[in-house]
Amino acid sequence: MLKILKGGMLTSVQDLGRYGFQKYGVIASGAMDPFAHRIANLLVGNHENAATLEISLAGPSIEFEEDAIIALCGGDLSPQLDGKECRMWRTLAVKKGCTLSFGAPKKGCRTYLAAAGGINVPEVMHSKSTYLRAAIGGFQGRALKTGDRVPLNPVDPKRAAALLKAANSGQEWQIPAIRYFNEPVVRIMKGRQFDLFDAQSQERVFSSQFTVGAHSDRMGYRLEGTPLSLNKAEELISEPVAFGSIQVPPDGNPIVLMADRQTTGGYPKIGQVASIDLPLISQLNPGDKIRFKEISLDEAQKRLIAQEQHIRQMKIGIDLKMEEWK
Amino acid sequence: MSFTFTPLGDQAIMIEAGNEITEEVQQQIRKAAALLEGRPPVWMVESIPAFTTIAVFYNPLAVLYDEAKSALEELLQHASEVPVPEPRIVEIPVCYGGEFGPDLEFVAQHNGLTAEEVVAIHSAGDYAVSMIGFAPGFPFISGMSEKIAAPRRESPRLRIPERTVGIAGIQTGVYPIETPGGWQLIGRTPLRLFRPEQEMPSLLKAGDTIKFRRISEQEYYEWEEHHDAEDS
């Protein structure tokens, strides 16, 4: 069990999302930074889709009521075990009674806590992700708060022993982490309604800098900059949207749709973030700056496949280490 | 009539049947949805149908855009052979007015009708579900009589209870979950539109025909109790 001493700003149970039900208006949810979520799981011997805790900005305080093997991946929110700084992107052993807490955010805004075995919550519509607005999934359909006790799944003892060796090995091994930036250049493809925008806006989306607005959350990131406008005002028919669709409402400030986006939207889409670069946006804080650069669909898919191969190699590497330590 | 295909990012394809919401276009979307459900490509993750479009999400590790597009083009060539799926008729019982429908009087006054007439008109029509979106199980419904149209409230309510039936402009709808909103509220149904524990979590789906049936407050509570008993 994980005993929540303090819930933090927004700590919720997430996996890779709820798919197959968007046709019924059920949003996908899932980890905002799927890359960090997956690596955290791999580091503790879990399936990539196992449930983790998504921790945002002002982190929670969590007491371990049992020995556990954990990994922390994603933005650096200064994690500490019993007040002592701990490392990210590697396997860690935690003793019963130990407390995980967070200090000042250093880089990014979301960290994933994976524990060997995974967070044990029931599946709702084939997923363990929390759907906050509908109050379903995750831990009782809501963010964690003081006093909650969150169960972990048991771990196979052999596996646990290998993981423990991995955690305690003095070797300086660590997974090569993704780099997050406060001012990233994010690759986007042209959106379906790109041609509806005036020439200036078509140029500006790639040349100007946008600032992440205060109302940015799991649903969407609101960007502020020189407003983008259409050739002529048009009412569009609502159509499906995707993770990373960049919609432009009439005020001209783009919104990047994120994990908790609605299933459809009626604003014109000027662009679509390449899947590989979604984590760069998920880790941005209000006030951070962002620029866009064009990528072709072909290139975006090639990069995505290359990243998947990279993750697969990491998985094989981790499995080999586990074998070694068995 | 044919479909056009464009990328929606690097993991989805948008299929478009036209750029206006006509009966014909919506039927094409229904046929496409039926084909995708009946013969889903192995690489398909899911599909989302809307008014004039249907998005197909795919796994780019299994298939790339061009190949997915060709496969969908081929699949949808059979659309003309697909009979338009017969609409399911779903009856939605509604207890109109009172605490469930605090804006029924407003809608009546706005249209120079009595509350009784508004209820009669609302519960007389056949409504078509164009798509599900905005909230889980929320139906976009067409077919309401303009005689009972009413503008949205100037300031939205912060909390509208689930299962409330409302009117906004010439649209009518039912809120599946508690949400803020600016619709004029005219009644409530004891039926749950969003049922996360069931394999089909939405009572309604695109293509359904809805009939609203008026029920009394007593019937409403009996129905609710009956369902609570079924759920537990």
From TrEMBL, chain B:
The keyword Transcription is assigned to this record: no
Molecular function in Gene Ontology: ATP binding; hydrolase activity
Matching SUPFAM superfamilies: Cyclophilin-like, PH0987 N-terminal domain-like
Protein's UniProt keywords contain ATP-binding: yes
InterPro entries: CT_C_D, Cyclophilin-like_dom_sf, PxpB
Matching Pfam families: CT_C_D
Coiled coil regions in record: none
Domain Carboxyltransferase: 3-204
UniProt KW keywords: ATP-binding, Hydrolase, Nucleotide-binding
Domain of life from the UniProt record: Bacteria
Cross-referenced NCBIfam families: 5-oxoprolinase subunit PxpB
Listed name of the protein: Inhibitor of KinA
Taxonomy of the source species: Bacteria, Bacillati, Bacillota, Bacilli, Bacillales
